[in-house]
């Protein structure tokens, strides 16, 4: 074995879309079923994860144009889904890094990457 690669979501960190959906619903008055239908049933979140939809176009698809001032808040809420590291895996990585080069792979989207990087920079997650 020459190296090891780990995924971010559900392997190194737990995440929860429901937290973001509840906050977006409450902040913008958008019914949760509309958010869920657009994000998951209409493959909108999948297209966003693939990079086919930009940050600028992500939330406005769900909302009326009259609420654009609130979109930035929604984007930051959506980006903050990562909860906490899976400490047992993090501990394993600290032992494995002595023996192997380690890589992080993920289909993380731009919003989640920015929110995650900010938490790492702020020392919220430590390895």
Q: Based on DSSP secondary structure assignment, what is the total number of beta strands? A: 4
In one word, what is the shape?
A: elongated
Output the helix-strand order: EEHHHHHEHEH
Query: What percent of the residues sit in helical stretches (DSSP H or I)?
Result: 40-55%
Uncertain spans: none
For the report, how would you describe the main beta sheet?
2 strands, parallel
Radius of gyration: 17 Å
Beginning-to-end CA distance, first to last residue: 23 Å
The assembly state of the depicted protein chains is single chain
> What structural class is derived from the secondary structure elements?
mainly alpha
- Share of residues in strands: 5-15%
- Mean of pLDDT: 75
The structural domain count equals: 2
Question: What's the tally of helices?
Answer: 7
- Strand order, largest beta sheet: 1-4
Verbal overview:
With 127 residues, the protein is mainly α. The protein folds into two domains: 1-15 and 81-127, no CATH class; 17-79, no CATH class. Helices cover 50% and strands 12% of the residues. The protein contains seven helices and four strands; from the N terminus they run E-E-H-H-H-H-H-E-H-E-H. The protein has a two-stranded parallel sheet. A two-stranded antiparallel sheet has the order 2-3. Helix 1 (17-28) runs antiparallel to helix 5 (71-79) and helix 5 crosses helix 7. The radius of gyration is 17 Å and the shape is elongated. The two termini are 23 Å apart. The relative contact order is 0.22. The model has no long low-confidence stretch (mean pLDDT 75).
